Amino acid sequence: MEIDLAKIDLNLLVALDVLLEERSVSRAAGRLFVTQPAMSQTLRRLRGLFGDALLVRVKGGMEMTPRALHLQGPLRSALRQVRRAIEGEAAFVPKESRVHIRITALDYVMSALIPSFLRVLQQEAPQVNVTVLSMKPQYAPMALEEGEVDLALGVLPRLPSHLGSCLLYTEEFLSMVSVKHPLLGGEITVERFIGYPHVLVSTTGEGEGAVDRALQEQGKSRRVGVRIPSFLAVAPVLQGTELVATMPAQVVLQMAQYYPLFVFHPPLVLPSFRVEMAWPMRLAEAPEHRWVRQQIVSLVRGTLLSMDPNHRGD
Questions:
Q1: Where along the chain do the CATH 1.10.10.10 domains lie?
Q2: Using 50, 70 and 90 to split pLDDT, how confident is the model at 107?
Q3: Which of 292, 280, 286 minimizes the C-alpha distance to 149?
Q4: Which architecture, in CATH terms, is 100-171+273-306?
Q5: Which long-range contacts (CB under 8 A, 24 or more apart) does 63-71 make?
Q6: Nearest to 136, CA basis, from 114, 110, 165, 104
Q7: Alpha carbon of 28 to those of 20, 36, 59, 302: distances in Å?
Q8: Which of 2, 60, 215, 222 is 20 to 30 A from 280, alpha carbon to alpha carbon?
Q9: What would be the CATH architecture of the domain defined by 173-264?
Q10: For the chain, give me the number of helices (H) and strands (E)?
Q11: What is the mean pLDDT of residues 117-128?
C-alpha cells in the first residue's frame, strides 16, 4: 500500500511513537496532554492509515502487533531526525554528552575492543551510555536499517550501499596454550600441534573452524576436545590443561595480558579476514556518532594494532 505523505499529519506519527512506547491509550493521552477519548480516536485513525491494529488488548494491557514492532525503531529514528532538522545541531561536547550508543558486536570483537573503548569513554565522555548487543553478523545490516542499533563491529556480510562502513583492520589467527603446556618443549610442528586436544568456539556446539579446513587440505585432522560458545571463556579453560586454542589474533593478545599464556603462530597457513565497522547513513553526520566512530578507529589503529603478535607470555 502506497501512502501519500502529503496527507499525513505529523502529529499522528508523534502519537504513534508514544502509544507504542506506553502500550496504553490512557498513559499516552497523559503524556500528550489530550483526553483519553481523543487518544482513542487517534489510534483508530492510525489503524486506518496503516491497515493494521497496531496495538491489541491482552490480559493486563496491550501488546504490539508484528507490524507495530517493525515500525517502532524506524519511526523513533525518523522523528529524531525531524526534530534535529528543525532544532539544528547543537555543539557536541564529549564530556557533557548524554547520548546513548547501541552497538552490536561479535563476542570476539567485544573482548578485543569494547573494554578499551569503554576506558576511552570513561576519560573523554563519562556520561555517554553504551549498550552492547550480540547478534549473528548476517542480521546486523537489517538492525542498522531498522534503527535497532547505531553501530555494528565485526566480520560483516556484504553491506548495501545505503549503509556507511570502513575497514578497521585485517585480522589473522594466533594460537595459545597454558605456559606449562608440553608444546613449549621444542619446535611446534603440525604433528605436535594436532597431537593435543583443541578448543573450538562454536555458538551451536557443532561445525568446524579455519584450522580444521586447513588440516583437511593436508589430509590431516585434529581432535576438538572442548566446544564452548564464547571466546571469553577460552583463556580460563586452558589453565592447567593440555588444550590448544587458535583464535583471532587481537583477542588472543588481549587475553595474554591477563592470563599466563604462551602465544605462537600456528604451524598452518590460515586465511585472514576483514573486521569492519558499519553505521546507518542517517547517523553519518551526527556529531556524537561521528565522534564515537573516530574514537574506535583511533583506538584500533593506535593501540590494538601496535600490540606485539610475537608475545610469548610470562
A1: 5-87
A2: confident
A3: 280
A4: 3-Layer(aba) Sandwich (3.40)
A5: 63/23, 64/20, 64/23, 68/20, 70/146, 71/16, 71/20
A6: 104
A7: 9, 8, 19, 48
A8: 2
A9: 3-Layer(aba) Sandwich (3.40)
A10: 11, 12
A11: 91
Q: Which amino acid, 198?
A: H
Q: Which residue has the cell 573452524?
A: 209
CATH number listed for the domain at residues 5-87: 1.10.10.10
Distance (Å, whole) CA 277 – CA 106? 12
Cell numbers 581432535: residue: 223
The answer, yes or no, to whether residue 313 has pLDDT greater than 90, is no
| Cα separation values, 223 from 184, 197, 209, Å | 19, 5, 12
Separation of alpha carbons 254 and 75, rounded Å: 39
Helix, strand and coil content of the chain, in percent to the nearest 5, comes to: 45, 20, 35
Nearest to 272 by CA among 255, 249, 252: 249
* Length reported for the chain: 314
Q: List the grid coordinates of 70.
A: 517493525
Contact between 20 and 46 (Cβ < 8 Å): no
Quote the CA–CA distance of 295 and 289 in Å, as a whole number. 10
The C-alpha cell at 38 is 481523543
Q: Report the C-alpha gap between 221 and 262 in whole angstroms.
A: 23
Nearest CA to 164 out of 286, 66, 53 is that of 286
Cβ atoms of 299 and 113 within 8 Å: the answer is yes
User: Which of 13, 37, 28 shows the shortest CA–CA distance to 62?
Assistant: 28
DSSP lists the bridge partners of residue 101 as: 130
Q: Whole-prediction pTM value?
A: 0.64
Per-residue pLDDT reduced to its tens digit, 50-85: 889 999 988 878 899 998 888 888 888 788 777 777
